[in-house]
Amino acid sequence: MNLHEYQAKLRFAEFGIxxxxxxxxxxxxxxYEIAKELGGVTVVKAQVHTGGRGKAGGVKVAKTADDARExxxxxxxxxxxxxTVNKVLIDPGANxxxxxxxxVTNDRAARKPLIMASSEGGMDIEEVNRVSPEQIxxxxxxxxxxxxxxxxxxxASGINLPHDLWKQFEKIALGLYECYxxxxxxxxxxxxxxxxxxxxxxxxxxxxxxxxxDGNGLGRHPDLEALRDTSEEPQxxxxxxxxxxxxxxxxxxxxxxxxxxxxAMATMDMTAHFGEQYGIGPANFLDVGGGADPEQVxxxxxxxxxxxxxxxILINIFGGITRCDDVARGxxxxxxxxxxxxxxxxxxxxxxxxxxxxxxxxxxxxxxTGAKTLYEAAQKAVEAVRxxx
Amino acid sequence: xxxxxxxxxxxxxxxxxxxxxxxxAQQMIEYGTNVVGGVRAGKGGEWVLGKPVFDxxxxxxxxxxxxxxxxxxxAEGAADAILEAVEAEIELIVCITEGIPIQDMMKVRAxxxxxxxxxxxxxxxxxxxxxxxxxxxMPGYIATPGPIGVVSKxxxxxxxxxxxxxxxxxGQTTCVGIGGDPxxxxxxLDVLQMFEEDPNTEKVVLIGEIxxxxxxxxxxxxDKHMTKPVVAFIAGQRAPAGKTMGHAGALVEGNVGTAAExxxxxxxxxxxxxxxxEQIPDLIMQ
Lengths: 389, 286
What we know:
Chain A is α+β, with helices and mostly antiparallel strands. Chain A is about 35% helix and about 25% strand. The longest helix of chain A has 17 residues, at about 165-180.
């Protein structure tokens, strides 16, 4: 789950990291009031779960409170890479002397937390990594003992940070690691961690922040779960999460219902394989879970049918411990609860597959067709979409 | 011969009194697995399915000589269950549980690296040596003894591949599900090495998916160290970047972990990559 910039910075502040004292506005007048209260130059920043806000015109400097109002009225409602801007952060302007990059993330390959830092802050880190990977300092942390002082020294000297800033940097690095560990985060990123002149002093400040939380860890962080912004997610994905289904919306026409994540991906791939030449593909990824009981199947059907792009449904179930005849009865029950006239291709394989297919066939649902293999099922689904187009 | 489990495996079931634990313990016993007991704190001294229940893994090991454990406890207690089994020096720990937070697993890994135990999973279907032992949730009847080693990140996709092999009369030495979590106990590499060393395994099927770099590392290993032919399938060619596809680890991050990248790498070292699961037996028979 992603946090917004303003949420991440508030969280960072709880761990002793200096952040600007900005506030969030939901309309242009609020933006004006906040800018007036802050006084001087402000920055109006779109709060959306996507990168590239600056390039898209979602970040603007305002010299006066009136400017802030005007910028906010333009940015609010803006579409940035498919995300509509519903709120803006008004931060005080800063006198920036330098920009650092600092992040804690999970290194899958090393199976350890990884600190990344660079003197090239303010830029997209993937771009820095592509152009000049030697500019990025990487330090792995033993998760049992946490980030140690000598490692912070290694990072600070690695990015050529002036000595007089080391003490501040140590506090920030420790705070960021602590924040990561205490939040079940998969990413805590400060970009830039700016060197700013303020009241005659040079200080480090987190001008931008990004946090991603491990969905499996959210259960023990109700305070973070409360920060979820559902306006950033497709309605189908919200409904699916409430029904304990794993669902990802895609832009094709074949609604897929499969048990198991790997098989669900393979089913998507197969429909795209046959459909691509006709502009046909999967409408979604959907894993109904290993068991595929009637309630889950009905919930899955509702979600698939709520997507108006769907022209055909493909059900692909491997009956392992679950028996295909049970699954077939579940599908028939679900069909009576969630009726549809769309063509449905059903492939059942595994335990009692013959009995399962017999139940599907004897239900006499004219829109339902059986298939023996994944190959055949995907082919039939693509043909069905072409027929109803 | 087989790898990891066989008829001499003595299995203890952690979480045997729960709904899942009990159901699958019964399935494993029916398959012929030597289940020697179960563990559930607070239920020590009871009997389930004719097997003794112990309060701790250590007590179960001392009383039964168990050398393998399987974990069916909910995600919030699963990391604890693994650590308990590590401390009891269980040789092979299989964790079925899905949804363990990744930071918990990184800590577990750090401890495992200095222990006598091997962990399979978490978030995996377990493993099956046809005709000898089933440790996990794979349906037993789909597999049959033979010369093919199968290693996979996915559950039902493995069943699909194993079933397709069996239908064509091609049996398996051992079918191993390593699971779909980003940080796990046993990697493709570990299992490939075991298959390479197992005299009965003639060819290997590897089933991967998007996310991470395990398949790429497996390709390097195959190139340098394997004499046995490998057939692969990679799921998720159409998965969008930045979206988790069911398994916590099935996630293309930036441009790392795409199916195309993995397929290309595997093909570059001579691995035959199937276009769809049902094609795996054809490639094995070539």
